[in-house]
Amino acid sequence: MNSSPAVFEPIVGRYLQLPLGGRQHRVYVEEAGSGTPLLCLHTAGADSRQYRAVMNDPAILASFRVIAFDLPWHGKSSPPEGWHQETYRLTSQDYAQAIIAVADAMELDRPLVMGCSIGGRIVLHLALEHADRFGGAIGLQSGAHVDPYYDLEWLNRPDVHGGEVCAGIVSGLVGPGSPDSHRWETLWHYMQGGPGVFKGDLHFYTADGDIRDRVAAIDTRRCPLWLLTGEYDYSCTPQDTEFLAGRIAGSKWQIMEGMGHFPMSEDPDRFLDYLRPVLAEADQSRRAR
Question: AB hydrolase-1 domain: from which residue to which, for each copy (predicted)?
Answer without folding.
Answer: 37-142
